[in-house]
Amino acid sequence: MRDNDPVTSATRQPEPPAPTQLSTSLAQGGAPVVPPRLIATDLDGTLLHDDKSVSPRTVAALAAAEEAGIEVFFVTGRPARWMGVVSDHVHGHGLAICGNGAAVVDLHGGPGAHRFVKVRDLARENALDAVRLVREAAPGTVYAVEQTYGFHQEPDYPKLHMEAPDTLAPVEDLLAPGGSAAGHPILKILAAHPTLDPDAFLTVARLAVGDRATLTRSSPSALLEISGPGVSKASTLALCCAERGISHEEVVAFGDMPNDIEMLTWAGQSYAMGNAHPDAVAAASGRTAANNEDGVAVVIERILGERR
Q1: Are 233 and 97 contacting, i.e. CB atoms less than 8 angstroms apart?
Q2: Can you name the residues that pair with 145 across neighbouring β-strands?
Q3: pLDDT tens-digit profile of 246-278?
Q4: What is the pLDDT of residue 72?
Q5: Are 40 and 263 in contact (CB under 8 A)?
Q6: Who contacts 214 (Cβ-Cβ below 8 Å, separation ≥6)?
Q7: pTM value?
Q8: Secondary structure (DSSP) of 63-117
Q9: Which pLDDT belongs to residue 230?
């Protein structure tokens, strides 16, 4: 996600349930069939409040989960350099999944000192194909390029964030063999459209690109995120879990937007936030309170209470 303003993450806001009305067996007093070993949570619109803060209640819940032997993974569309907001709350392994699954990052070094553990990049030929096909399907689309180290954009790309780009140039020049984006792996391409409905833009772009890349969205604006084929939060989380001998049934996931759908579907237990996009609600097995009401903490507290 490129937007870094204090806004909610969903394009449509369904009525959130009350915090005590969790729509899972946990809320009805029943223990989960498989005790969870890993919690995977999105950040913007999910773990974070709209002002991008982590509440004291959530900090305490994350620490309690780790103390109880449940690993916590932050799984986000954010780039690694934007992870300072949660770097103090990474316990044990210190890892986070960034860029919608394009990178696994060790955050133990703190902001600016992170280390890329795994990179699942977008090949330049696929990136160029996607750029061309989306622009043909949706004229007026403008682009930015997110890399492991570096962020570049076209001159007309909207100012959706607080950082200055490393380079301003047409995307074809950025992606050229000798272009500004030639030095490091490409994590994702961001595609913005000035007038299209966000969900309609995603549908049109997916039809145009096909299997050349993975397209999703996490912003309330018409901003798409284009990753390598098969790269998603779920597929990278599955790799991390396999390395730990953790099955999907032992994972509890939280999310609010279309880029969380695969993860919510894959996890044994999953919760859409009270402020979630309708497609995320449909993908999840349960529902919790909104991000501003500490919906992630609500579920973690309930899980830990059932273990006592």
Answers
A1: yes
A2: 152, 189
A3: 999 999 999 999 999 999 999 999 999 999 999
A4: 95
A5: yes
A6: 100, 226, 227, 228, 229, 230, 231, 232
A7: 0.88
A8: HHHHHTT-EEEEE-SS-GGGTHHHHTT--TT-EEEEGGGTEEEE-TT-TT--EEE
A9: 97
